[in-house]
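[job 4471] stage=fold_predict status=RUNNING
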Amino acid sequence: MQDEINSRVVAISVNTGKEGARMTAHLLKEALRKFLAEQEKAKTKREQTKKPEKPTTYRGKQSVRKLMEQNTKLTNIEVTDQNIKSFERVAKKYNIDFALKKDRSIDPPRYMVFFKARDVDVMNAAFKEYSKKELDKSKKPSLKHKLEKAQEKSKQMERTKVRQKDRGRDR
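[job 4471] inference complete, writing C-alpha cells
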C-alpha cells in the first residue's frame, strides 16, 4: 500500500523569481496547470508511438456476424442431424472457421453451417469425414442392445449349467 502511495506522489518545484516573493494560491494553480498540460502532451506522444492494433480474427466456431466481418464470401451447408457436436470436432480438426445457425421454423430443427467460400475444398473433406462417422455410428449396435444380448447369453449359460448338474447326480 505504501508503494502505491509513493508512486502517486508528485514533486513540483517552482522558482518564484524574487527572494522575498511568496508562493500564492494563484502561482500554485498556474504551476499545476502547466504540469497537467505536460502530462497530456506526454500521454498523446505515447499513444502516437504505439503500433495500431490489428482487428482480432476469430478462429473455429463463431457467430455469423464475426464471420462476415472478416470480409470474405460465405457459403453454407444444411445439416439436419441433432448431434452437431461431432461436426464441431471435425471442423476443429480441419481448422475451419464456421458459424452454426439453427432454423427453428421446421420440426425437427435443422442447422445451417456457414463457412468461408475459400475453405470449400477443406469443408468438403471435413463434411465427408463427418458423414462417414455418422454412418458408422448408425451401423453400430447401441450399447443398450449389446447389454441385452449379454444378459440373454448369461441366462442361457446359467440354464445349461443347471441341467448339467442334475444329470451328474446318482439317484
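[job 4471] summary: Residues 64-139 form a domain with the Alpha-Beta Plaits fold (CATH 3.30.70).
[job 4471] exit 0
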